[in-house]
Amino acid sequence: MSWRTITWFGDSMLLIPTAILIALILPWKSDDRRTLWCWIAAFGLAGLIVSISKILFMGFGIGSARFNFTGFSGHSAMSATLWPVMLWLLSGRLPAFWRGAAVTIGYMVPLLVGASRLVLHAHSKSEVAAGLLLGFTLSTLFLLSQRHTQLKGFSLPQLSAALILPLILTGHGRIAPTQNFLEYLSANIAGLEKPWTRADLLKQRQTGYQSFE
After folding, report:
1. How does pLDDT run along the chain (213 residues), one tens digit per residue?
2. Which residues, including other chains, have CB under 8 Å from residue 28's CB and lie 6 or more apart?
3. What crossing angle do the helices spanning 96-119 and 125-145 adopt, rounded to 10°?
4. 21 vs 91: CA distance, rounded Å
């Protein structure tokens, strides 16, 4: 499995439809009506915080040259929010050991996604670390809030139906244009001809050092 394949497990083209799928399944499988709203709040908050951090940088240059930080890694944050919950949902009626193993896998997948973003030079260490921290915090808070929730199990046909959309999207492999959209949005909000880039941030830092010297 290549790093580009692994990084796909954090792409919005896969995660957003899967998050919607989880939202559709939860009222059917959970005995707590609040479960759905907790999930919408967790995933929605992850997306909102990531988007705001990127708009602040690309539109207004708000970042950290010292830590090479231009905003939360969306792949890291969104995958860390989704996969622990997805595996929790699918393993709802399994024995405690196997359910724990499934949720652990849910926590491991985002770590691999974060590593792939570093290998592919898509993000800095600070951006990946911040994204994982954000996502794991939200997914863990969700799981803690649902520790007394009883889930109905999946039959084999139901499990196949639940997995078919993510599998189709994985096979399709198209990347979501979210970064391009946020660049366009940020520039328009700030009234810029083009959005801020990492190169601009690092150049500003070098210029500052030269002025200080």
Report:
1. 699 999 999 999 899 999 999 999 999 999 888 999 999 999 999 999 999 999 999 999 999 999 999 999 999 999 999 999 999 999 988 899 999 999 999 999 999 999 999 999 999 999 999 999 999 999 999 999 999 998 988 877 777 777 777 777 766 666 778 888 999 999 999 999 999 999 998 887 666 543 333
2. 152
3. 160
4. 16
CB atoms within 10 A of CB 133: 14
The Cα 182–Cα 195 span in angstroms is 9
Spatial contact of 52 and 191, defined as CB atoms under 8 Å apart: no
Cα separation, 79 vs 46, whole angstroms:
10
As a whole number of angstroms, the distance between CA 35 and CA 89 comes to: 11
Does the predicted TM-score (pTM) go above 0.85? yes
136: closest CA among 109, 164, 158?
109
List CB contacts of 1: < 8 A, sequence separation 6 or more.
none
